[in-house]
Design brief:
The complex is a heterodimer. Chain A is built from four helices and no strands. Chain A is mainly α. Chain B is elongated, with a radius of gyration of 24 Å. The chains are: A mainly alpha, B mainly alpha.
Chain lengths: ~90, ~250
């Protein structure tokens, strides 16, 4: 039987799908019986899902394109690296 | 006669006398130059893959030629997704700087782009590298480099491996709640800076960008088990901070 510490160490791998069959079941059985590990595992999943969704905010300032172009306009041809191959 | 003028790093195409090619309010496809297919790459996404592929090739060739209209098109098309990626790694305050840096790098390096990946993918990889470098630089400024690799969950358990300090139930119950909590997101940004460079890089690549383990191992030249240990420690560090935040409202 896995200890709570061992389950905690494997709960990320359970989330990532990188645990083997036996370990996966050992972790799941422990989680089914242990309220603390169940809570830990649920909250870890919550955290990881929220990290992945941080990138969904898509507001772009209206003048952003103009500002980037102004920066690029200030660069000269000498700032550009030559191609690696003739085309 | 067709006039092709270079303004600093850019080439602008147009009919010269009619278009006023150097005016900031010019029409990019002025005069006799027909609009190129890249200008409709967004609509061609509904059409065939071949159309989209050809349009991207044409866009890249125009970028390599240093065409101003091509850069403006690319900057407006790709910046939203680049800003989203940058925000997810460095937070809102520094995301625009990261994307500006990325466009400068793209401007410099586009000549070396060889279509091994889609243009958008190439740009996103520059965003990630630029953002991770910025975090590394800021981490040097804000926190001492000691104690990074200590075991963040060491005091949670007793000697038998049972919970000594069991986790508290968080007040947030969904990823949306967690994302809406601005103070908590600021704390995540802060704690990203307090990790070791390798923990941070693994966490960003895996949990924020959703990269697969094989790609991360290859990018960082680390073994799969090393990557898993670094990821576990980085996640535990953030878990510990969120736990503390839930209790005290600060980090």
């Amino acid at each position: 039987m896995l200890s709570c510490r061992q389950v905690t160490e494997r709960s990320g791998a359970l989330l990532d799908g990188t645990l083997g069959f036996r370990e996966r079941w050992a972790v799941r059985i422990h989680i089914a019986m242990c309220v603390h590990c169940r809570r830990f595992s649920r909250q870890l999943r919550l955290l990881v899902e929220s990290l992945r969704r941080r990138a969904s905010d898509d507001a772009v300032p209206s003048d952003f394109v103009d500002r980037v172009m102004a920066t690029l306009d200030a660069r000269g041809p000498e700032d550009r690296e030559p191609p690696t191959q003739a085309s | 006669m067709r006039d092709t003028r270079s303004v600093r790093g850019f080439v602008r195409t147009g009919s010269g006398t009619e278009a006023g090619a150097d005016s900031p309010t010019e029409t990019d496809h002025a005069g006799s130059s027909p609009p190129l297919a890249f200008a409709s790459t967004q609509t061609s996404a509904d059409g065939s893959h071949e159309d989209a592929f050809a349009a991207e090739r044409e866009l890249v060739e125009a970028l390599k030629a240093g065409r101003h209209d091509a850069f403006r098109h690319a900057v407006s098309r790709y910046s939203p997704q680049m800003l989203a990626r940058a925000r997810s790694i460095v937070g809102s305050a520094n995301a625009e700087d990261v994307v500006q840096e990325t466009w400068l790098a793209a401007f410099r390096q586009i000549g070396r782009f060889e279509h091994r990946a889609a243009l958008g993918t190439w740009l996103q990889s520059i965003v990630s590298n630029t953002a991770i470098s910025l975090l590394r630089k800021r981490a040097r400024e804000v926190s001492p480099p000691s104690g990074h690799d200590s075991d963040p969950e060491a005091d949670w358990f007793d000697e038998s491996g049972s919970w000594a300090v069991p986790p508290h139930a968080w007040a947030v119950n969904s990823p949306e709640d967690l994302l809406m909590a601005d103070a908590l997101q600021d704390c995540i940004d802060k704690h990203l800076l307090m990790m070791s460079d390798s923990q941070r890089e693994v966490l960003v690549k895996r949990d924020i960008e959703g990269e697969d383990f094989e790609t991360i191992c290859n990018d960082m030249t680390l073994s799969a088990s090393n990557v898993r240990v670094l990821l576990h420690r980085a996640r535990m560090r953030i878990m510990r901070m969120v736990e503390h935040f839930q209790d005290t409202g600060s980090c």
